[in-house]
Protein 1
Amino acid sequence: MDDDFDDRGPDDGGDRTSQVRGALLKALAVVVVIGVVIALGTTIMVRALGLDQTDSPGPVGAAPSGPVTSSPTTALPVPGGEQTPQQPSRSATPHARSGAIRLDVSPTRVGPMERVNLTGTYKGADNLVLKVQRFESGRWSDFGVDATVRVGTFATYVQTGRPGEQRFRVYDPVAKQGSNVVMVSVA
């Protein structure tokens, strides 16, 4: 007899099928675990960023939660009227209304032409451009710097050589909505 002859019986094919089935079940279990981890991670990130606000009246999400440090105001142009500046704050002021733009500044005291970081949130907004504005001569003027909102947050910086107290805000020209005002002292 030949030693190379395959002597498998009818049950040996069943072992092979069981092995393949077991490997497929293990691969399926790994895929399910990965899917669950991705789903949990996505849910946690959506909630952490506040993008799960479904009760907002428009495409922009709800206002940020947290303590209110001062009463919010807006300084939008009044047709035919004189503009008055908002009350400035040294830090961001959460607004009580939906879709408010929240602005933070750091540092609040700088020398001429030193960097002033402007960061903030615009809940529910993404991929839109905000204009940085400075209050001068009784009105808001574009400062020539933009900040792009990415997944509800933005960051940019300004530099100014003008001495004294400077008031800044960011402005959404599409929604015609301004942020809280921040004050920077240039010495």
Protein 2
Amino acid sequence: MGKKVVVGMSGGVDSSVAAYLLKKQGYDVIGVTMQIWQDEDPSVVEENGGCCGLSAVDDARRVAAALDIPYYVMNFKQEFKKNVMDYFVTEYLKGRTPNPCIACNRYVKWESLLQRSLALGADYIATGHYARVKQLENGRYALALSATAGKDQTYALFNLTQHQLAHTLMPVGEYEKDRIRQIAAEAGLPVAHKPDSMEICFIPDNDYASFIEREAGNQVPPAGNFVTKDGEILGQHKGITHYTIGQRKGLNLALGHPVFVTEIRPETNEVVIGENEDVFTSQLDCTNLNFMGIPDLPERRRVLTKIRYSHKGEYAWIEKTGPDSIHCEFEKPVRAVTPGQAVVFYENDMILGGGIIQK
């Protein structure tokens, strides 16, 4: 019998093909769907479950049956609520814009699932992410870009630890997306043509502000002032949780030309408005560092730097300014550096490391 691997199955085509490929490669495969929805009412779960709703369980179970592998649903509700949902709300209340997928990947999909899987005697966990796990000559593990550039998910996985990477398989990272669907169809998997899930799984209607109001109640900041950087009042905003850096739509400011959110000031409950050029900057500071391809950053280094999931990347010089902080200077100005988002550093198509943007 081959080595045992627990595959996190969302009911989508990518994780289903991951399970199929690993079984073909001789692994002893177990399928698991992570139960993260908070409401027990089936209609609510179905409407709001996103990638882990009841239909996801049904689809994953059907795929597991087609592959003839054991399948389980594991309860991770508490871990998800604490590390993802509560974190998401808290960050927005601070005037920041979090990335819940990064928190979910590190603390739920990996930390919690990996611990339980290793306890069950598994050697690895696997997912359908578009990324590749590589062991480098220096012995460290790093994520390399996937074969599908447009689908690459390394950015959202920058926070994984060396221990987690050493026990991770990502078989679909070697393939183009079209080929993954083709493999699924050839293997007769029932989800071969299922559309990809795009929204945040616990906010399927994308109405972040309403979700935060439901979760945080009277902690939600009230309406306040739109101001210029010099403090001139331009009008009233709906509450800082409605806005993010670089936002243009939904401001309802009649100034005769497009304007943008350039800063959120939770301490004064102000949203700063500026021109398009005010949204660009040449530097940022980050903390909450995680290194992958290198153990640390001993000296100034030029790296390709991504400041959001959809960012193509820009070259920057990075250097440490403290045990858990890096200052980053871009060679060309970048748009909408957003506190709370990740900044990820690449070299030779691999992740060197990254952190969370502070300013």
Protein 3
Amino acid sequence: METVAILDELQGRARRDSALRSKLLETRSADDPVAAFCEVCRGLGYELYEMDLIAAGEDFYASMRRSTNGGGENSPMLEGEDDFYELFFAGLEETGEGRD
């Protein structure tokens, strides 16, 4: 399963399961939050490592740059769109605690 599909599936599970959502959100306060997040994911059966998150974000960003204005010098600078880790949590926090 590719990284984006893992994150989508995991986010869906966490939206339905407040205990899982809390467990994932708690990883953000770890000394190494990304490593802690990936460790929880692996514990849930998802083979996800830190470099998977980084590579997926960079691949997505590179595709976006290539698709705008030919990907040359005039391509817009995109900020944050390549950080699937942060986007995962933004979507998770958007659900709110009272929406189980």
Protein 4
Amino acid sequence: MDLSFYDMRVEMCRVAKMMWDKRLTNAAGGNFSVKVAENRILLSPSMMSEEKHCNMKPEDFLLIDYDQNILEGTGKLSRETLMHVLILKNFDEIGAVIHAHPFYCMPFVAFGHEIPNVTEATMGRGKVGVIPWEQAYSKDLSIGVYNYWEEHRELAVKKPIGAIMQYHGIVCSGDSIYKAYSMLERIECDAFCNLSRAAVEAVGDYTIPTLK
């Protein structure tokens, strides 16, 4: 099979497997995209998590344009395709977007609570904010995510960032698939550290310092 952007497809398979193996997403969903050329996006198909458990093959990824036309591939578009397109089309500096359901982030997602920055790995990016709830998979939700990125454009064009989709999951971006994935892992680490705070302080007379 003659596939375009084959090397990137292979890398996307590797990232999908890491997302699943490290509990950075679950069967409830997750999808990601990479801008491979002007007006060309490689996108994970619908049911990547629920049916395939992120066990992907290079030919599974869909090549689309900004109008969401499928140029290569036989799968079905993710219901969150518009969210990916809006960010990748309107931010020249962003090359990849990941939506996932990380295990330790999900309590923050479920209760609409921002994730404070508590490790050096996320210094300079600040807290992970919360995008107000909109119906899952709706156009309004995609626009809400895009509006968050617009509001944080100055930071988003310089560094990977992430945000919480309330009740739903996490969205991350970066200039490459590697940077977007790195942001996902870093946010998950911050979430775990925040959840563990009470246990750490209970060990003894210890107060966790605040990063300057």
